[in-house]
Specification:
Blueprint lengths: L23 H4 L2 H6 L2 H10 L2 H16 L3 H53 L1
Length: 122
């Protein structure tokens, strides 16, 4: 059978750098809580981005204290890394959603088929 929309995606190799940390409460700093809502921090934890957000806050503070192109480039580079990882997480969640939707459609088709057979038998 040719590949179709409902085929599961190929296995993805996750970067261990972005593995979620077990200690969520310990990773929350007052600076993170002041800048981001708790819900966003939970999403960042699931994406393994809490350390990157902490680093971003310190880089932004450094760039504010010592302005210059190098500090600004470091901040932009980290923001780009965070954005790319969030895009990957979003794509993965969307892919999983599509796969579950297909499984739901398959279950509905099977239920219809079984009901039709039962109706004919009755």
């Amino acid at each position: 059978m040719a590949a179709s929309y409902c085929d599961p995606p190929p296995p993805y190799r996750y970067d261990p750098t972005f593995a979620p940390r077990a200690d969520f409460a310990g990773a929350l700093t007052p600076a993170l809580l002041a800048r981001y809502p708790r819900r966003n921090l939970l999403t960042a934890k699931a994406a393994g981005l809490l350390p990157a957000l902490t680093t971003l806050l310190s880089l932004e503070a450094t760039a504010h204290q010592q302005p210059g192109p190098a500090a600004e480039v470091a901040v932009l580079r980290l923001r780009q890394l965070i954005g790319a990882q969030m895009a990957l997480v979003s794509t993965t969640v969307t892919s999983l959603n599509a796969e579950l939707d297909c499984e739901g459609e398959r279950a509905d088709q099977m239920a219809g088929y079984l009901k039709a057979r039962d109706d004919r038998r009755t």
